[in-house]
């Protein structure tokens, strides 16, 4: 792996805000009003009990829970002071403290887009390769998803088998969006504890986390799974859904749709973001309400549990329909959300919209450039979704490499410009003088290493580029995507831990 | 409803790359360099003006040093707002610190031939065609350059041939970038005056402006100075564009790069205001860093975008408009890399409200013109425009009553509110939003294919508003006179 980007800055100094303080306050107040007056849909008796005990009003027929502001405030006061997503070793740890924005993979995508442009279902070998590729790329801090399913593994127990593949092929933090049952959650907790060495160690440095895909509504089973994980100290992230008037108005309202219909949708079945296109401002209030409610539930169920707020950067449905995955509004949401949550800072994972592009290239680049920059400047701790194309329907190793370069660029921008005596360098300017050159100066030698170096950007002359077969950055990315999974070595997991993980999987009864 | 001729961005979102105290520090450092190191002005006329204005001038070294007071008083004379006019008043640009206008990029030397796909040297016909193309695109508000120079004409009068080609083929504002020297500048002024009806009328309807490159670090070029002085004499806007490269013509650190750029740009404005108090002037800039692998110009990097944003803030600190290099890319094709460069540099320029953004259309470090690339960049401009509009938060837009009205898993498509506001959704021109299967059926056509279709259509069918025959004839006479003078010696 080339050394470019090893100096990729991690500290974030710049932020771009969307809303004024007054506007942000209005959005927050609106969100709290929605929770109190309209409520949120919460699936399952367990969650109902938790919220009711805390003072919320629960309609068990409609599953609508109205949460008064004081209850929300009490819950938020229980938030832990620090959330970290740990890797196998401390140097891989990701503190979610607003100081930087890191990149995570996304998924699972139903298909793999091979380097030759063919699409097919993913298998265990593809997942392992994707994990090793992510492990090799410095910009990827979290392996989330997993990026693709191992469809050659029996469906029963597949979630845990995929986790085992991830753990064997990366030393980075692993976040699963595929855990949907309490049994799976219990097994994941057991694995996390085994990896950490103890329950206490798990709480201090959780190697695994769980999330429901941003924008998706957890059903009862998924919600209970989140609460089980949270109680053990595994970081969780999900949001609830603001209720509609019919559900909130009367206990005699029609029963909620069956749980199956509310299951976390696949990428293809994800409902369009059904909001009035004009009312972009409504989205921050609704999103914030949904996250506050989820966070409150988790804190009330498991005080001090690490919680990571998910932010879908997916926008409104396009006029043409069918494409719900990309438009400019998504970038605005990332920036607006951070203004709104400023008074109570929840760690934020922004889900970059998977480009609807079906292949890596110009359009995917435009979208991922804006998404990573919006997330970086808006204050997100993590931006998920690297490597996805076709609205999330395909995982592309080439796209993963390209997204890492975009992330590196955005991270450098977010680092900003340092202005002090050393960087203003008046002495050096005077020494170089009029018409001189700074190349030989001590100051230049001292600071050259800070210049951003591309891994992929091609800056050769046209003639050199033509001579070498007109291969640009996309070709370079494809070469790295092909080479790194086999060239990069991931230190094996300790044999004892492997055995423990296998035992847990075997006895999980899944 | 007719489409507007030009489409400026009025950003509601702002982004600061520099904090106020950072700006102050850079400003103070700039004044120190101007006062103690000075700037070289290789023009006796310019040195005379600066000396009369209170600068300390060394005629042997051609270096002028600027006392703080001279700088402050001169900059205060520059107008804060003015209009850059088009031959068509619908193309007038209001330079007021609140609007961003995009131009094409300039001074390229090759064209990607649309028949062969290969690059070839540019000609006067290409300069003309490029102006016609820019005239057709609303997102390109003015013509800068030329985008590619006429290389099939006498080199000594190339700029006039360029200008003749441009002025004949667009009714948008023309900012000349290759017109240097007093003689050429006066000839260009004469051409513009012929179009609008005299030099007095040109002062009221300034359909041209001038931009010159500075010589980094800390110097100007004689003919460039003289050309801009002619512009200022006629009340035409002008500016100087530093392009310091960190690790080369500027120290490695970005703050120092900004000091160099600031000093050069500021010194140019001081000269113009001392020469012609109240002359419209602007800052310009295209700062960058050296590519440490090749030693050359990067054509695009995160430092570029940061420097662009910071430079614009500095210009506005002085109350001056900024013409910022935007959308440069080192890519040789309109590919992934070009998209990163174009997207993020446009974001940086718009979010800091760069008044003029130069510009679209060139690949490979501003060398090769590609019309499809310009169309694709126009698309990116539209996206940034939408983002820059931000989110309006009020009772109407919070729409709590609408949210409460529509139930879960519902759709708003049939709502009156939706029908009323659907037109505000951004619509792509070249982006493909079809499904994967449809994309396969359509032959895997992507954005480049669509952009090529649009570009070909413009090149084949678009015709700009022509100049009257007598005016065209006068432009040709001016150029022919200049050619004859060169031949005559």
Note down, in words, how this protein is organized.
The complex is a heterodimer of chains A (510) and B (489). With 510 residues, chain A is an alpha/beta fold. Chain A folds into two domains: 360 residues, Trimethylamine methyltransferase-like (TIM Barrel), CATH 3.20.20; 30 residues, no CATH class. Chain A has 19 helices and 18 strands. In chain A, the strands form four sheets. In chain A, strands 12-11-10-9-6-16-15-14 form an eight-stranded parallel beta sheet. In chain A, strands 2-3-1-13 form a four-stranded antiparallel beta sheet. In chain A, α12 links the parallel β15 and β16. In chain A, α1 packs across α10 and α13 crosses α18. Chain A is globular, with a radius of gyration of 23 Å. The relative contact order of chain A is 0.16. The N and C termini of chain B lie far apart (55 Å). The longest helix of chain B has 22 residues. Chain B is globular and about 75 Å long. Chain B is α/β, with parallel strands linked by helices and 489 residues long. In chain B, the strands form five sheets. An eight-stranded parallel beta sheet of chain B has the order 6-17-16-14-12-11-10-9. Helices cover 46% and strands 13% of the residues of chain B. In chain B, α4 runs parallel beside α5, α6 packs antiparallel against α18 and α8 crosses α9. Chain B has two domains: 454 residues, Trimethylamine methyltransferase-like (TIM Barrel); 30 residues, no CATH class. Chain B contains 18 helices and 19 strands. The interface between A and B is large, with 120 and 123 residues.
């Amino acid at each position: 792996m080339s050394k470019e980007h090893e100096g990729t800055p991690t500290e974030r100094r710049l932020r771009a805000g969307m809303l004024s303080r007054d506007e942000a306050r209005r959005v927050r107040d609106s969100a709290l009003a929605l929770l109190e007056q309209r409520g949120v849909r919460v699936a399952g008796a367990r969650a109902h009990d938790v919220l009711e005990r805390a003072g919320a009003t629960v309609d068990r027929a409609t599953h609508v829970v109205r949460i008064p502001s004081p209850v929300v405030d009490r819950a938020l006061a229980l938030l832990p002071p620090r959330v970290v997503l740990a890797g196998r070793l401390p140097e891989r740890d990701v503190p979610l403290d607003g100081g930087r924005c890191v990149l995570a993979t996304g998924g699972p995508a139903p298909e793999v887009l091979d380097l030759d442009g063919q699409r097919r279902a993913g298998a265990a070998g593809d997942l392992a390769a994707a994990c090793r590729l992510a492990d090799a790329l410095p910009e990827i801090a979290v392996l989330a998803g997993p990026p693709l399913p191992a469809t050659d593994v029996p469906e029963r127990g597949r979630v845990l088998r995929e986790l085992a593949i991830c753990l064997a092929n990366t030393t980075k933090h692993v976040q699963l969006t595929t855990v949907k049952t309490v049994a799976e959650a219990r097994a994941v907790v057991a694995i996390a504890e085994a990896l950490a060495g103890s329950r206490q160690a798990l709480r201090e440095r959780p190697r695994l986390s769980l999330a429901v895909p941003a924008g998706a509504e957890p059903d009862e089973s998924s919600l209970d799974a989140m609460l089980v994980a949270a109680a053990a100290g595994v970081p969780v992230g999900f949001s609830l859904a603001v209720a509609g008037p019919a559900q909130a108005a009367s206990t005699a309202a029609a029963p909620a749709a069956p749980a199956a219909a509310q299951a976390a949708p696949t990428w293809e079945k994800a409902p369009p973001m059904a909001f009035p296109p004009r009312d972009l401002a409504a989205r921050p209030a609704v999103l914030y309400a949904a996250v506050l409610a989820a966070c409150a539930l988790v804190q009330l169920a498991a005080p001090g549990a690490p919680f990571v707020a998910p932010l879908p950067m997916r926008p409104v449905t396009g006029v043409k329909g069918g494409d719900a995955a990309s438009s400019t509004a998504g970038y605005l949401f990332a920036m607006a959300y951070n203004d709104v949550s400023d008074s109570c800072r929840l760690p934020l994972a922004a889900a970059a919209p998977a480009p609807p592009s079906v292949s890596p290239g110009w359009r995917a680049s435009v979208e991922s450039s804006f998404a990573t920059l919006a997330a970086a400047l808006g204050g997100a701790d993590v931006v998920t979704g690297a490597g996805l194309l076709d609205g999330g329907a395909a995982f592309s190793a080439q796209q993963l490499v390209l997204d890492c370069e975009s992330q590196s660029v955005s991270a450098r921008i977010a680092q900003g410009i340092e202005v002090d005596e050393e960087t203003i360098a008046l002495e050096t300017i005077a020494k170089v003088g009029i018409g001189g050159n700074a190349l030989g100066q001590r100051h230049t030698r001292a600071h050259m290493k800070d210049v951003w170096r591309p891994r992929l950007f091609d800056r050769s002359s046209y003639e050199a580029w033509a001579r070498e077969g007109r291969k640009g950055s996309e070709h370079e990315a494809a070469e790295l995507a092909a080479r790194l999974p086999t060239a990069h070595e991931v230190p094996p997991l300790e044999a004892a831990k492997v055995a423990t993980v296998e035992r847990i999987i075997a006895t999980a009864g899944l | 409803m007719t489409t507007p001729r030009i489409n400026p961005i009025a950003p509601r979102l702002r982004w600061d790359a520099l904090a106020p105290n950072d700006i102050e520090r850079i400003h103070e450092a700039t004044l120190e360099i101007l006062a103690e190191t000075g700037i070289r002005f290789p023009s006796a006329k310019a040195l005379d003006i600066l000396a009369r204005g209170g600068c300390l001038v060394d005629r042997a070294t051609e270096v002028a040093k600027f006392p703080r007071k001279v700088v402050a008083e001169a900059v205060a004379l520059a107008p804060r707002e003015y209009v850059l006019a088009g031959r068509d008043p619908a193309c007038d640009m209001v330079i007021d610190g609140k609007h961003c206008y995009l131009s094409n990029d300039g001074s390229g030397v090759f064209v990607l031939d649309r028949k062969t796909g290969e690059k070839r040297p540019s000609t006067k016909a290409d300069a003309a065609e490029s102006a016609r193309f820019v005239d057709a695109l609303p997102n390109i508000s003015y013509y800068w350059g030329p985008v590619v120079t006429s290389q099939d004409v006498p080199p000594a009068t190339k700029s006039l041939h360029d200008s003749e080609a441009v002025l004949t083929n667009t009714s948008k504002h023309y900012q000349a970038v290759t017109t240097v020297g007093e003689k050429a500048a006066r000839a260009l002024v004469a051409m513009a005056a012929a179009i609008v009806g005299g030099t007095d009328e040109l002062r009221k309807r300034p359909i041209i402006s001038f931009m010159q490159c500075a010589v980094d670090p800390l110097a100007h070029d004689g003919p460039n100075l003289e050309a801009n002085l002619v512009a200022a004499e006629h009340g035409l806007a002008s500016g100087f564009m530093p392009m310091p490269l960190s690790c080369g013509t500027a120290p490695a650190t970005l703050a120092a790069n900004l000091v160099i750029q600031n000093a050069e740009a500021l010194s140019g404005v001081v000269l113009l205001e001392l020469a012609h108090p109240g002359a419209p002037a602007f800052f310009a800039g295209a700062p960058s860093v050296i590519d440490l692998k090749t030693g050359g110009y990067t054509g695009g990097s995160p430092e570029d975008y940061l420097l662009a944003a910071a430079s614009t803030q500095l210009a506005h600190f002085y109350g001056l408009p900024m013409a910022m290099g935007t959308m440069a890319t080192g890519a040789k094709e309109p590919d992934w890399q070009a998209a990163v460069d174009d997207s993020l540099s446009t974001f940086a320029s718009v979010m800091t409200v760069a008044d003029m953004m130069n510009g679209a259309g060139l690949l490979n470090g501003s060398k090769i013109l590609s019309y499809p690339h310009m169309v694709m960049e126009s698309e990116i401009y539209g996206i940034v425009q939408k983002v820059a509009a931000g989110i309006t938060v009020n009772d109407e837009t919070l729409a709590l009553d609408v949210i409460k009205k529509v139930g879960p898993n519902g759709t708003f498509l049939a709502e009156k509110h939706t029908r009323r506001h659907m037109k505000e959704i951004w619509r792509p021109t070249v982006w493909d939003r079809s499904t994967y299967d449809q994309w396969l059926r359509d032959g895997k056509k992507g954005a480049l294919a669509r952009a090529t279709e649009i570009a070909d259509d413009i090149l084949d069918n678009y015709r700009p508003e022509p100049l009257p025959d007598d005016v065209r004839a006068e432009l040709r006479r001016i150029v022919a006179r200049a050619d004859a003078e060169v031949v005559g010696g």
